[in-house]
Amino acid sequence: MSWKLAALVAVGLVPGIVLAQLTREGDSASRSWDALRAAGFTAYLLLWFSTVSGMAVRLRLRPGPAPITWLLEAHRVSGTLALAFIAGHVAGILVDPWTGISATDVALGATSPYRPAAVLLGTVATWLAATVLLSTALAGRMTNATWRSLHYLAFPAYLAALLHGITAGTDSAATPAVALYAATAAVVAAILAVRVLEPRTVQRSPNRVPVGPVTLRPEE
Fold it and tell me: Where do the domains of the chain lie?
């Protein structure tokens, strides 16, 4: 379900941003640039939420009385949607005449004529996030240990996305952007500290059912 939703979003988002960039003139040039930047911010927030909700599921943290399976599904959906908005962000950049970034630059990062180090961070974040999502899609074909090792790549993926947003964005120094990055990074750091200092291992028992790579009790 999450993959289908992400595909639908990408199908609508990518052509829309590309068309806005190709037909831009005058004031619309600013609006089309804002659109691809908005896609980048949205992708970052979705990746952040996927990271936070994933740790929360592992720690059995949940807001209110909602079943933890809801949080698990939100974790999955936000991760796949992040890729959809990354696709829109990248598509807009590729057709933007000002940056001069090519598909090769996006794939490799370091070859970009525009802030190569910052673009490289975005490339790393994208490849790592894609690897994590692919590992989840193929979880049934690998051992739990292998899946878990690949899933830990979500942490460097988030860190790379955070640094990319800070260093590549034209409005990263704006107060709202600084507040956004600071607040989201603080939440990740706080939950990660809890995860490291108070690790919890999900114990197997006969009355638990598998939900992907994570095992949850039926009543939860």
Answer: 2-216
